[in-house]
Structure formats: C-alpha cells, structure tokens
Amino acid sequence: MIATSAGLPGPHAEAVPVSGTAPRSLRVLAVGDVIGSPGRASLRRMLHGLRSEFDVDFVIANGENSAGGRGITLRTARELRDCGVDVITTGNHVWAHQDIEQALADDDLRLLRPLNYPGDPPGNGVWSGTVRGHELSVVNLMGRVFMTQLDDPFRAMDAFLATSRAAGGPARPRVLVDFHAEATSEKQAMGWYLAGRVSAVFGTHTHVPTADARVLPGETGYVTDLGMVGPRDSIIGAAIEPTMRRFLTQRPGRGVVADGPVQFNAVLIELDAGAGTCRAIGRVDRFDMRGASDEVRAQGEYHA
Fold first, then answer.
1. Domains detected in the chain
2. Of these residues, 93, 97, 180, 205, which one is catalytic?
3. Which tens digit of pLDDT belongs to each residue from 53-74?
4. Residue 287 bridge partners (DSSP)
5. How confident is the model at residue 7 (pLDDT cuts 50, 70, 90)?
6. Is 93 tagged catalytic?
7. pLDDT score recorded for residue 81
8. Spatial CA neighbour of 156 closest among 202, 112, 114
9. Is residue 148 scored above 50 in pLDDT?
C-alpha cells in the first residue's frame, strides 16, 4: 500500500496516477543507513534494479555507518556514489575517520554533514541542484534528544528556509530533509513543524524501519525511520554475541558488523514536479539473501 496526499489509504489504495494533464512526478528513493561492507555490497547489487523498477529520478542514502559500521571514508563515499546514490547524508558518526574533511570537500561525492553543527565546521549541510529541470535541495539535520547537543535543528531549518526565500526561491521549495535522530518524538515533532513547508521529512539513525509512512497535512511526506541496508540477523547491524555481551557485562567492547542476509530498507517518495508537494510515499523493503560477498537473490515488495 502507498500513502497518498488524499490521506491514509485503504487496503487497495494506489499512488496518484501520472496523466498527461497532471505535472509529471519526481520520484525519490531515500535509503536507510548503509552498514559496513554487507550494506555496501547489497547496495551495489540492488540499487540499479530498484531505480529501474520504480522509475527513480534521484537517490539519497545515509552513509554514516558505511565504513566498518561507524563513519564514512573517502573510499566508501565513492563506492556509494558509484552504486548510483546521488546525495549521501550522515549523522553523529560523520567525524569518525581521518579523511572525512577531504571527503566533505570533494564536490563530486555530494557528501553532507548535519547542518546544525555549531561554529563553522568543514563541509555542507545542504545540497542543491537540478533534477530533470527542477531545483531540488537535500538538507541533513541531527537531533539532540539522547544525542550530542548540537545547535537547535528546528531553528536551523527556519534559517535555511528564510535564506532560500530571501534569495528569490519559491514559497514552497522542493526540499527533502534527512533528520538523523534517536527519539521518535523529536522526529515526529520535526515532521509536524515542517508540514506544508518542505516536500518530505524522513528519519534515520535507529536502523529500524517504521510503519508510519504518510503524507502529512500540507502535502509533506513523512516517515519516522527509513531503517538500514545491513545484516538482518544482527542488533541494528552489529554482530549479536559481542553486542549482547556488552549489555550483560556493562563492559565496553569493539563493535563488529554482522554478516549474512541483508535487509534493504528504503522509502519511495513521489513529488509533484511543479508544486514540490508530496503526492505519495511508501516503503520499499527487500531482503538480499546472499549477504556481503555472494550474488544477490532478492525478494520483497513495495508497500506502505
């Protein structure tokens, strides 16, 4: 099922059809946190087919766990881009590797760090460009509840939208927001705060996909968390035994990325290309049964 701008659907609801009289849609695939080599391998095998299957115009993926399950490097960022990701977002692990400043400075990687980091950190929190003749922006934000106390993400969005309007941008810009946050309440608050002001808000960070994809009043797409592209039989992507040992002993230990079958979690967002509003949003969840190094055998469906 797919949630549309008409409201929450019944069991047989379909996406708003594209006709010759309606503005053609922009289709955006937002992909959950890519976890280490299993996630990168699955993305490499599956993304091209998904782009073709759903006629995707633009792909956003969160890459902050792509390097060994923690952080992102110049190499893993390039690998994500080569897989077909158009913009890479991050979060609280963005600074984990030494070459991150070099990666953030490489315009071709289109790698973002959260916009609301204080001071004047390296890199950018916003990517703006043209997709099929339409201006589109991606904003990367980070929450503060149960996380590092960055600048206020709500005020950071206010400032970004005010600057966009002052520069002659439309009253309703085509803006997609990755809100990397721990607390469900903070994510939902951001969704409602930006309802009617941006095209879509999707959460990342927990690695657990949520079943609440919907179009909010004001035609803003929303989902609390995309999930992950990472090992299914794991604890949010990490190997079960060493992670469980940390809970049982309360002693620190090195995290290890799990292996085995990979869950591929994403959301398909359909935008009205002219108005910048969200026409429909629905989950795209697949299973890559071969794990990190084998050929893909996928199964799943597109559902809300």
1. 24-232+258-303 (3.60.21.10)
2. 93
3. 999 999 999 999 999 999 999 9
4. 263, 299
5. very low
6. yes
7. 98
8. 114
9. yes
Query: In the block, which residue shows the tokens 């006629």?
Result: 55
Check whether 139 has a pLDDT greater than 90.
yes
Q: How far is Cα 117 from Cα 119, in angstroms, rounded to an integer?
A: 7
Q: Which of 106, 160, 153, 92 is nearest to 128 (CA)?
A: 160
Paired tokens of 232: 């299914």
Distance, CA of 158 to CA of 100 (rounded, Å): 27
283-286 long-range Cβ contacts below 8 angstroms, 24+ apart = 283/209, 283/211, 283/213, 283/223, 284/29, 284/50, 284/54, 285/209, 285/227, 286/46, 286/50
Summarised one tens digit per residue, pLDDT across range 227-249 is 999 999 999 999 999 999 999 99
Among residues 261, 212, 194, the alpha carbon closest in space to that of 46 is found at 261
